[in-house]
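Here is one chain, start to finish.
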Amino acid sequence: LSQMIHNPAVNEDLEGNGLRFIMDTEGRQLIPWEEIHAEDIVIIPAFGTTVETEELLLKKGVEIQQYNTTCPFVEKVWKRSSEIGKKGYSIIIHGKYKHEETKATFSHSYRDAPSVIIRDMSEA
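Its structure:
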């Protein structure tokens, strides 16, 4: 989908070996979704992805679980926000709203709870 991790050397090496990023870390399309097909290998990066992107890939027939490298600590946040949300609490996500991990976390959390992203104390 996008950079595997925030390490320019790793990402340059991957691109040098033929890997192409579908989008950048802010979600801007680099390769149109129309060019992605079921036989393509799509790697979900350590930051995870949104529920909407997962659903889009599944509709295209792309096997997302086979190449899902979402960090277990990111998934732990998603699971915890779901647990908290099901108890009637709201979720406050501290992060940059354009960052893919923040977008993914919001996408997962708002299914179970009112959720908001704040960047700093002035936004809070």
